[in-house]
Specification:
- The protein is α/β, with parallel strands linked by helices and 720 residues long.
- It folds into five domains: 2-145, D-Maltodextrin-Binding Protein, domain 2, CATH 3.40.190.10; 149-269, Helix Hairpins (Orthogonal Bundle), CATH 1.10.287.130; 277-434, Heat Shock Protein 90 (2-Layer Sandwich); 438-567, Rossmann fold, CATH 3.40.50; 587-719, Rossmann fold.
- The protein has 24 helices and 22 strands.
- The strands form four sheets. Strands 6, 7, 8, 9, 10, 11 and 12 form a seven-stranded mixed sheet that branches. A five-stranded mixed sheet has the order 3-2-4-1-5, sandwiched between helices. A five-stranded parallel sheet has the order 14-13-15-16-17, sandwiched between helices.
- Helix 9 runs parallel beside helix 10.
């Protein structure tokens, strides 16, 4: 009826080797095909699939090598994209004749069918075949389309994923960049605000500095002119000179604050480590501010509960910290207020002592906002603060930085209109002085005393009691003058007092009255009396009946020495410290290139009978020292910046000389270069120390006194 052919199909590029053991895929029911293959290729094996699609899938998945099927059927199947890569092997085919078979009883039906088939021409047959095979368009379903274009689709998907990922990454980067830019902008905004604040603060600072500097300068210039008109009135001259001196020190403090702040900001300020006596620092502060507070009618009190008085650290910076804190308290405390300074040794172990400094005042206090800004440079509560109280706004900032550099801490408590308390803690190495060895007989003398402490202040009375307990002294306390006089009488027969320790400043009955009552009673004729006061010179006339004066704040060593001295009967009459200097018979070499500075130094030295030789530069100083016999000069004062040969080089040349006093003579830098590195440079050059300009006469005279005493001791040891 229809002639066609059965063909083999297989994977493109496959070698159809008829001698190999190829696996032939046959759809279910294709029995004739299996017979033909067995007949032609007995070595072939079979894979029986359930359908044409199953057989083609087996070839694609390499479960079978080839498939046998009618060419018309297989062509339609191969149009599916699922079977790309599978092709017909035209060289290997078998003819196949398509016929219709019917049962014998259907002869009539078959006759009709045969007649109908014969009526179909060959062209019509070909058209039918074409229309139902090749001409019939294949319509792939969605799955087949996906399979056909799987690689492009995969590529597109990968590209889309990559693009999406890239977009996410770009978006993330953009977000990060935006956040970074926002962060930078905020920082820049903050920096701009801070810069504006700093500029405003510095502008205000310069404005204040102009006022602060011009005020003392105006006083100095004005009073100098006025003093010239009263040359014949020494009292007015003294008054004007005192005011000029005060104004000069105010101006110097302002300049020092600015220089210290600059040194701190540029990391040029260094902390030195040397032995010092804490008593000297506290006594100096007490001396300065007791008088100022008294003139302003402010109650001033200082308690120093310290056992270790000799320490190692930076004495200058400790003093500066405390002066700044006390100055701040004094500045903001009105008349009738109170300033209290308490120093405690809170702990001591491994030769390290922790000292706590508490400075309290009953001044105007601070707002919370001001407390957060108080340690920043140039900060003051308002412009009115600067106008009313003055100051540079640097003192507390400098103190905070110095405390941090020394490894300490500072905290504050303040309430507006109530007052402020600053608490500082610093650690120092403990130094045991050579004279600290105890004398048993002296201890016994003190232990035999029975002392009456007269003080109406509970804190200071308790502190004095603590010191006496440490010294092993028997004592009792009286809270008022009346109570003290009563106790002197009642204890006279039982256990009489051998000494009275009287606080001069008492409210109901001051020390003068108590002292007079004691001396008026003949029974107290042998009674020793020690007066405790912040200023012995101030009360010397009123307290003429006292045996001894001890300056406050009271220190354990000071009281112990006073008691020992009195027990050794060295006080025949009341004595105060002799602060007069007399250097008659001594000579110094002064190296100074500035004529005015040299004139001032020579005059200051002449005031204490110190002879001086002046050298205009370092070269002349070396020559003068070489020309003078050994021992001519007690001390050399050396300026640093001089022509021809500066102070450092001049010192090195003197130290290198081959003469007995070259390496021993004390050489002190006397210069306006007052930073720590300048002091270190002077010491490295071979100098013994540093005296800053402008010259503090007390520092100068004490330095000369110390060196001359040491020289005399060495000479005595040499004579022995």
């Amino acid at each position: 009826m229809l002639d066609s052919s059965v063909v083999f199909v297989g994977r493109d590029g496959m070698n159809f080797d008829v001698n190999s053991d190829l696996i032939v895929a046959l759809p279910s029911g294709f029995i004739n095909g299996e017979q033909v293959v067995n007949a032609q290729y007995p070595n072939f094996k079979f894979y029986h699939g359930t359908s044409n699609e199953d057989c083609l899938k087996a070839i694609r998945d390499k479960k079978a090598d080839v498939m046998l099927q009618n060419m018309y059927i297989i062509r339609e199947c191969l149009q599916s994209p699922l079977y790309e890569g599978i092709a017909i092997f035209p060289a290997f085919s078998f003819p196949e004749e398509e016929k219709i078979i019917a049962l014998p009883e259907d002869k009539l039906l078959m006759s009709i069918i045969n007649k109908s088939i014969k009526m179909i021409t060959q062209d019509e047959t070909n058209d039918i075949v074409i229309n139902h095979t090749i001409g019939k368009g294949y319509h792939a379903d969605f799955k087949e389309i996906l399979y056909k274009y799987r690689f492009p689709l995969i590529g597109v998907v990968i590209l889309l994923i990559a693009l999406f990922s890239l977009l996410i990454i770009i978006s993330g980067i953009r977000q990060r960049n935006l956040k970074a830019i926002e962060k930078v902008n905020k920082k820049l905004e903050t920096a701009v605000i801070q810069a504006d604040r700093a500029n405003n603060a510095k502008s205000q600072f310069l404005s204040r500095m102009s006022h602060e500097i011009r005020t003392p300068m105006n006083a100095i210039v004005g009073l100098t002119e006025i003093a010239k008109r009263y040359e014949e009135d020494p009292h007015k001259i003294d008054d004007y000179l005192d005011k000029i001196s005060i104004s000069s020190k105010v101006l110097l403090n302002i300049i020092n604050d600015v220089l210290d702040m600059s040194a701190i900001e540029n990391n040029k300020l260094k902390i030195i480590n040397e032995e010092f006596d804490i008593k000297q620092i506290l006594s100096s502060i007490s001396t300065i501010y007791y008088a100022q507070c008294k003139s302003k009618e402010i109650h001033f009190d200082m308690i120093a509960d310290i056992q270790n008085e000799y320490l190692r650290g930076d004495a200058l910076r400790v003093s500066q910290i405390l002066l700044n804190l006390v100055s701040n308290a004094y500045k903001f405390t009105k008349s009738g207020g109170k300033i209290s300074i308490i120093i405690r040794e809170t702990e001591c172990h491994n030769e390290k002592a922790v000292l706590q400094f508490v400075v309290s005042d009953t001044g105007c206090g601070m707002t919370d906002d001001m407390k957060s800004r108080i340690f920043k440079p140039f900060e003051q509560e308002s412009a009115n603060t600067a106008k009313e109280h003055g100051g540079s706004g640097l003192g507390l900032s400098i103190a905070k930085n110095l405390i941090s550099m020394m490894g300490g801490t500072i905290s504050l408590e303040s309430e507006k209109d109530k007052g402020t308390t600053f608490t500082v803690e610093l650690t120092f190495a403990v130094v045991k002085p050579a004279e600290a060895e105890k004398n048993t007989s002296d201890e016994q003398k003190i232990a035999d005393l029975h002392i009456l402490v007269v003080d109406d202040d509970k804190k200071t009375s308790a502190y004095t009691s603590t010191i006496l307990s440490r010294l092993g002294v028997s004592f009792e306390t009286a809270q008022s003058g009346d109570e003290a006089l009563s106790m002197l009488k009642t204890k006279r027969d039982e256990h009489p007092f051998s000494l009275c320790l009287i606080n001069w400043e008492m409210a109901d009955m001051n020390g003068a009255y108590v002292l007079k009552q004691i001396r008026d009673d003949q029974e107290n004729e042998k009674m020793k009396v020690i007066i405790l006061s912040y200023d012995a010179n101030e009360i010397q006339d009123e307290a003429a009946g006292a045996d001894c004066f001890v300056s406050k704040p009271l220190f354990q060593s000071t009281l112990q020495n006073a008691l020992l001295t009195m027990m050794n009967s060295e006080y025949a009459e009341n004595k105060t410290a002799n602060t007069q200097y007399d250097f008659t018979g001594h000579r110094i070499l002064l190296a100074e290139d500035q004529p005015l500075n040299a004139e001032i130094a020579i005059a200051l030295l002449a005031m204490v009978n110190m002879e001086s030789d002046h050298a205009e530069n370092g070269r002349i100083a070396v020559r003068k020292f070489c020309d003078a016999p050994p021992g001519t000069y007690d001390v050399i004062l050396m300026d640093m910046q001089m022509p021809e040969l500066n102070g450092y080089e001049a010192t090195k040349e003197i130290r290198a000389l081959d003469r007995p006093d070259a390496k021993e003579i004390p050489i002190y830098a006397m210069t306006a270069e007052a930073f720590t590195e300048d002091i270190e440079a002077a010491l490295k050059a071979g100098m013994n120390g540093h005296i800053a300009k402008p010259i503090d006469t007390k520092v100068l005279y004490e330095t000369l006194k110390k060196e001359i005493i040491l020289k005399d001791l060495h000479q005595k040891e040499g004579d022995l």
